């Protein structure tokens, strides 16, 4: 019970370690408190307090009487760019949750996190400076998710794939590397698509992936794909727009075509907290979306007209689960 109550201090300890670059500093080798204090620009006593708090969370470790090194969980955290980006991003969520009752009473949104993400809820192109921060965050956290999806589902059985809401095309790039003969397309807001195109060109994939610009709330999805993917997209939207998106995908797929939905889901055994406690409040603060159980998603798929659906097992359900549906 104490850990539940004190959890916010653990999160803020991690945030402080990331913000001052403590993990990167210790990754270079053992350092004394004095050296660390100088490097992170924190007074000596504050630095020692942070190091001791970090050691309690296995982020840092005392090597001897004078020197500190990176702890096992600190090394794991530092090695996952998506988690590090998320820690920094959480500054806005912490601000919105400073008064959680006010957040709940105002109906979601209205705070810092909602302002960060508003471009995706508006029709039109979105501005390049608006989309950059969120696109970077999604790109940083995508590789691990993409790996689990590709390990769990055979993309080689398809002819051409359309990734809807693909951001900076990190998932498409991962598919391109793993399945060289699969035709690839991506659909997102034009400003997001421009960022994706630049990333694809830099990876030598500019000619292989076709980019479609538009809003899936206002524009029809391109046809000619026997597989459409939604990777961490559906839970970003409330029920009515989510159902409209599923119906638009159903219309764009040929008979027998497949929709693949991949995202964290509510009521996942062993990951119940991340479903409704984390994503529930995160998406409420965003002002759009909800965590849904696999059962709820499959019911939406039936309502959208899909003939059948099934759950595909993944190695780490806390991070991503998969549902496929057949038109």
Task: Give a topology summary.
Layout: H1 2-20, H2 22-27, E1 31-32, H3 33-40, H4 44-56, E2 60-62, E3 67-70, H5 72-78, H6 81-96, H7 100-105, H8 112-117, H9 128-152, E4 160-164, H10 170-178, E5 183-188, H11 190-202, E6 209-213, E7 227-231, H12 239-252, E8 258-263, H13 272-286, H14 294-303, E9 308-312, E10 321-326
Parallel strand pairs: 4-5, 4-7, 5-6, 7-8
Antiparallel strand pairs: 1-3, 2-3, 8-10, 9-10
Description:
- The protein has 14 helices and 10 strands.
- It is an alpha/beta fold and 327 residues long.
- It folds into 2 domains: 2-78, Winged helix-like DNA-binding domain superfamily/Winged helix DNA-binding domain (Arc Repressor Mutant, subunit A), CATH 1.10.10.10; 81-326, Rossmann fold, CATH 3.40.50.
- The strands form 2 sheets. The chain has a 7-stranded mixed β-sheet, sandwiched between helices. The chain has a 3-stranded antiparallel β-sheet with strand order 1-3-2.
- Helix 12 (239-252) links the parallel strand 7 and strand 8.
**Topology pattern, helix = H, strand = E:** HHEHHEEHHHHHEHEHEEHEHHEE
Q: Which fold name fills CATH's third level, the topology of the largest domain?
A: Rossmann fold
What's the oligomerization state?
A: single chain
Alpha plus pi helix count: 14
Low-confidence stretches: 120-126
Please outline what is shown here:
This protein is of the alpha/beta class and 327 residues long. It is built from 14 helices and ten strands. The strands form two sheets. The protein has a seven-stranded mixed β-sheet with strand order 6-5-4-7-8-10-9, with helices on both faces.
């Amino acid at each position: 019970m104490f850990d539940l109550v004190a959890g916010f201090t653990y999160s803020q300890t991690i945030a402080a370690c990331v913000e001052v670059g403590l993990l990167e500093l210790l990754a270079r080798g053992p350092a004394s408190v004095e050296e660390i204090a100088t490097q992170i620009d924190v007074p000596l006593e504050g630095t020692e307090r942070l190091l001791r708090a970090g050691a309690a969370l296995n982020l840092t470790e005392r090597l001897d009487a004078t020197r500190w090194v990176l702890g096992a969980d600190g090394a794991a955290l530092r090695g996952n760019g998506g988690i590090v980006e998320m820690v920094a991003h959480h500054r806005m969520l912490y601000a919105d949750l400073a008064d959680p009752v006010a957040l709940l009473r105002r109906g979601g949104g209205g705070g810092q996190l909602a302002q960060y993400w508003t471009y995706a809820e508006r029709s039109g192109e979105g501005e390049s400076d608006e989309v950059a921060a969120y696109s970077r965050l999604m790109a940083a956290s995508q590789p691990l998710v993409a790996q689990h999806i590709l390990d769990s589902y055979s993309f080689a059985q398809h002819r051409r794939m359309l990734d809807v809401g693909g951001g900076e095309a990190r998932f498409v790039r991962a598919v391109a590397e793993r399945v060289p003969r699969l035709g690839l397309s991506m659909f997102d807001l034009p400003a997001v698509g421009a960022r994706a195109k630049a990333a694809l060109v830099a990876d030598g994939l500019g000619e292989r992936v076709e980019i479609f610009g538009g809003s899936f709330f206002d524009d029809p999805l391109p046809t000619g794909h026997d597989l459409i993917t939604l990777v961490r997209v559906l839970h970003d939207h409330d029920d009515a727009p989510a159902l409209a998106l599923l119906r638009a995908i159903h219309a764009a797929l040929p008979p027998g075509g497949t929709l693949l939905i991949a995202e964290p889901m509510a009521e996942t055994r062993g990951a119940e907290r991340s479903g409704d406690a984390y994503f529930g409040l995160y998406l409420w603060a965003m002002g759009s979306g909800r965590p849904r159980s696999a059962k709820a998603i499959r019911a939406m798929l039936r309502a959208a007209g899909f003939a059948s659906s099934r759950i595909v097992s993944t190695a780490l359900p806390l991070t991503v689960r998969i549902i496929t549906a057949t038109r």
